Structure prediction request, 604 residues.
Amino acid sequence: MKFRTKLILGFSIVIFFISAILGIVCYNYNSKRLSEKAAQSLKFYSRQTAANVDFTVDSMKHVTDYILSEQDMLDAMKTLPKYYEKDNYGLGKTIKHNDLLDTLNAGLAMYYINSNFYRVIIFNEFGDVASSTNTGSKLTNKARNTSDIKWLNSATRMHGKPILIAPHMDGWGIRESEEVFSLARKVQGGDFGYIEVQYATDELKDIFEIPDSDIKVVAFLPGGEILYQSEGLTDDLVSYIKKHPEVTKMDSITVSSDTSMWASASEISDNYGIRVVALEEKTEIIAGMKEAVMIALGMAIGCFVISMGVVIFIASKLSRPLTVLKDQMENTGIENMDAELVVPNTDDEVQAVGIAYQNLMHRLNESIVKERRMSLLQLQAQFDTLQAQVNPHFLYNVLNVISSRGIMDGDEEICEICGCLAAMLRYSTNTKERYATVEKELEYLERYIFLLKSRYEHRLEVEVDCEESVKQEQLPKIVLQQLVENSIQHGYNNSKNIMKIYVHGWRDETGWYFEVRDNGQGTTEEVREELNKKMRKIRKKIMSRGSSIELEIGGMGLANTYARMFLVYNGRAVFRIRNLEEGLSVIIGVSEKEDEADVSGDGC
Prediction:
């Protein structure tokens, strides 16, 4: 068999398998991408819908907060039960009693309440009823027997906290009754009555409506009652999800039904524990994979045809001098890329391949040189981009405009805020200096604290104390501000206490240090362990790869602060975190001894 035939036959077999593998890989990739996209879509819609329903329930709770905070209405609710005491009724008392009901009805006659909610009811066990709507089709049955309302005991046990009531028929209507779901709470302090805010279930469609018609939604209240169910979901499927909530905890999992398979994702709302499950039939996802099959098949056939054409062309041109050419190619390395390639003149095609190969080596050599130069420039460009992602001159001009407006309006505080913010931007976007003295860092911190006090006012108290001997020491820029910001962002979640932060800088015989201490909630053992692992990983990378790790870390958190301190002072950098009886303490500094302290958690 001729060499040309052997070459074509051998390459055809190899190319066939390569094309088949490429097609399989392409199919698997597209299939995985479609499945991941479907899972992400379901997760996104479930999270978005949970946030929407939380917002709606929040608005219902705000109505009850408004009623309980309105002093006249609260006094009326507390006074009404007194008129049912013995010997406490007469003509004058009756007029006063009616005035109290008028006060409640007037307080509920707000445009916001009437336009956003089906009905808001205030009632007590003595038969007193006030309603937000009492006309037309929403005429309120004020003679309703409230003893048959099932949720009264539940509301009483909650001691004034709101409860959610599953969709039910409105029992307050006279002319018609519509399905609603409610938020209710008992007025604390005595038999002062109840407040019920109703929302029409027909309007839930706007909350749970999803642009993708193939995706269905079902929502459950914390007690397991169904809040909403999309059309097209069978009762068996909804019942299965209700009985087995664990099956939807993953991003994507198959839920079995009688005749179909579903992919699902669930999300529990942050404020009220409402579980929202988004589902999509597997058949809809599989239908989208047909395109992936055609693409994979087309790529496999195209790769095979093109490769075979190239093989036949090359096989027709090659001859025995290829061996000599091959030997010279094998002896070519990075150190001799510029060497002249000696190609036998026995075959013009072989000589052309040799020339082409030599030209390729020249281009490759030039590319390697350019790549080395570009890598050096890229390191600096990446760092500069981190510090100057916005045009500071534009921001300065905008701040000057705002400051001028403040002067025109006689508001000196706006001028001070704008000036302080401009100084912070000028300091943080200066790419010429990556490090600064402690004195400059404290000036930057004072401006940041000024802006924080403009926001939090009396809720924030910050004390800064630094010895003069420390002020000329060098620190990476914006380190102290990041520690204070970390205390505020993570130390006072949902806390109404006054935020007290103490910043102290000192020097002793072992080195110089800074401590940022707060009176917040501290941190958990899991968080500290995770932070310690991250810092050990950063230390290992820096020791093996040098300063380029600073560009890879990104962000401005505690891990980044530790990395930048370690880059400047290596083993002398000190970084300690510990929980106090009240709050968290973070200490950074520089030890006089190598490897005195690296990073430590509680108790260190």
Remarks:
- The chain has 18 helices and 18 strands.
